[in-house]
User: Which sequence fits this backbone?
């Protein structure tokens, strides 16, 4: 059995002790039952915490699923190595539609509708927009509640249909490579270059808690960033600090950024078993 206190102490400094404790409970439950235990939906940072927790158990492995291919938000399953079945991730998939002639809804609008229903963020996976509306994945235990209560988003009446995982449309991303120079590797400067906005606007967005670094809420505008870091700006996608190339003759830092932009959706082809 893993050393619980040692693991919690490791995560305490980064503010992840509470999450680590919940994941430890699941891992220990899988170990004792010799079956599996499944988490709520986690962002990529939470999944990284789960990987570290699982690595401290000799007889427990980690599996993940978010419904969508390359999902950002996923559930993790701690699975005992001598369990030979398939873990049930307990997910349900939905398509939500509205009249786009009269209503323009955003990711924030859909999240807001769920918060208004009293739902927590961790029951929801990714939300992907499609030509007819949007698709999303949620915790299966909330199926009836969602079907009965999600009838309106903002001022738009909506229709909701339960779909299969095979019906999910998969996000395809276009990568835009951006070359820029910055005075320092501060979050506000690098993010402003990546998203094409002013540094003062980005500083305001960081202060408004709309920006994350490696899926953790940004501390402040002056927070340093490093090569390989992922910056996410609410409703504006992700920017990766791909390369720090060096210093220019004027003393500025030359950097390469990759901005990930959603461009289209395709059906996921699932393998068939003969």
Assistant:
């Amino acid at each position: 059995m893993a050393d619980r206190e040692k693991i919690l102490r490791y995560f305490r400094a980064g503010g992840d002790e509470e999450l680590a404790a919940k994941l430890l409970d699941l891992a220990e439950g899988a170990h004792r039952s010799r079956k599996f235990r499944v988490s709520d939906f986690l962002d990529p940072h939470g999944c990284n915490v789960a990987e570290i927790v699982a690595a401290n158990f000799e007889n427990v492995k980690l599996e993940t699923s978010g419904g969508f291919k390359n999902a950002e938000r996923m559930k993790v399953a701690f699975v005992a190595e001598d369990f030979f079945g398939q873990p049930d991730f307990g997910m349900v998939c939905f398509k939500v539609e509205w009249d786009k002639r009269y209503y323009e809804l955003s990711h924030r609008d859909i999240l807001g509708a769920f918060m208004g229903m009293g739902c927590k963020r961790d029951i929801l996976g990714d939300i992907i927009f499609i030509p007819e509306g949007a698709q999303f994945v949620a915790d299966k235990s909330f199926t009836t509640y969602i079907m009965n209560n999600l009838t309106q988003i903002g001022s738009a009446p909506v229709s909701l249909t339960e779909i299969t995982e095979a019906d999910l449309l998969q996000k395809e991303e276009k990568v835009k490579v951006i070359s820029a120079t910055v005075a320092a590797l501060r979050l506000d400067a690098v993010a402003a270059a990546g998203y094409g906005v002013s540094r003062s606007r980005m500083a305001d967005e960081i202060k408004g808690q709309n920006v994350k670094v490696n899926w953790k809420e940004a501390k402040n505008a002056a927070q340093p960033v490093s090569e390989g870091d992922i910056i996410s700006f609410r409703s504006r996608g992700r920017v990766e600090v791909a390369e720090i190339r060096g210093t220019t003759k004027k003393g500025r830092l030359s950097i390469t950024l990759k901005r990930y932009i959603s461009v289209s959706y395709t059906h996921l082809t699932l393998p068939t078993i003969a």
About this structure: The longest strand covers residues 253-267.
